[in-house]
Amino acid sequence: DADVTQTPRNRITKTGKRIMLECSQTKGHDRMYWYRQDPGLGLRLIYYSFDVKDINKGEISDGYSVSRQAQAKFSLSLESAIPNQTALYFCATSDRTGTGGDGYTFGSGTRLTVV
Amino acid sequence: AQSVSQHNHHVILSEAASLELGCNYSYGGTVNLFWYVQYPGQHLQLLLKYFSGDPLVKGIKGFEAEFIKSKFSFNLRKPSVQWSDTAEYFCAVKADNAGNMLTFGGGTRLMVKP
């Protein structure tokens, strides 16, 4: 099993719909992150969580919300999806140092298309 | 806030050509440096990292990177690329004032022609 699992892998949704992307990890890491990847724009941080009670906005949090249900689970919601939220979304985890092991461990991504 | 620049957005090489991808960062303090690779359709994976010591770091698949503190650079190199190196490459920096978080560069998309 993957260390960081994202579901779904692919999703097509309609404008205005609410959608949740889920991330779970078996690394035992405290920290979890949501990024979106767009061609030519690299990785942009949406939200991050240092532990279950510590959630922070990233550089592009508008239109998104998150929930840290447990140390191992961090979900990203789009309350009312719009077409410019079409992107590849990655969840990542790290320990408190940010540099243990591989630094960040990434999930396989969710490709979201909003039509 | 620190920033990470990867000036080459797209690179196209033929097999056996040498590769150098640039990475520059803006922070003047202590840094940890990473290169990640994302093969088509896959997630980011660690290629190599630098924490301290020898500024020339060797990673997997024949890649290496050199930390030059005076130039705020951590360029990725490979003497002879293969078609299987086609991927997107991300440089990342952890600065000692950034709450132990990584800042990523914009990525460089490498295409190796067979």
Structure in words:
- The complex is a heterodimer of chains A (115) and B (114).
- Chain A is mainly β and 115 residues long.
- Chain A has strands at 4-7, 10-13, 19-25, 31-38, 42-51, 54-57, 64-70, 73-78, 87-94, 105-106, 110-114.
- Chain A contains no helices and eleven strands.
- Chain A starts with a strand and ends with a strand.
- The model of chain A has no long low-confidence stretch (mean pLDDT 93).
- Chain B has 114 residues and is mainly β.
- Chain B is 0% helix and 51% strand.
- Chain B is built from no helices and twelve strands.
- Chain B has strands spanning 4-5, 10-14, 19-21, 24-25, 31-38, 45-50, 56-58, 64-68, 73-78, 87-95, 102-104, 108-113.
- In chain B, the strands form three sheets. In chain B, strands 2, 5, 6, 10, 11 and 12 form a six-stranded mixed beta sheet that branches.
- The mean pLDDT of chain B is 93.
- The interface between A and B is medium-sized, with 19 and 22 residues.
Identify the notable features of this structure and list them briefly:
heterodimer; A: 115 residues; mainly beta; B: 114 residues
The topology string of helices and strands of chain A comes to EEEEEEEEEEE
Strand content of chain B: over 45%
Distinct helical segment count of chain B: 0
Mean pLDDT of chain B: 93
Structural class of chain A comes to mainly beta
Broad shape of chain B: globular
Largest sheet of chain B: 6 strands, mixed
What does the radius of gyration of chain B come to? 14 Å
What's the average pLDDT of chain A? 93
* Oligomer type: heterodimer
* Overall form of chain A: globular
> Which structural class do the helices and strands of chain B define?
mainly beta
Total number of beta strands of chain A: 11
> Tally of extended strands of chain B?
12
| Terminal-residue CA separation of chain A | 32 Å
Overall helicity of chain A:
under 10%
Low-pLDDT segments of chain A: none
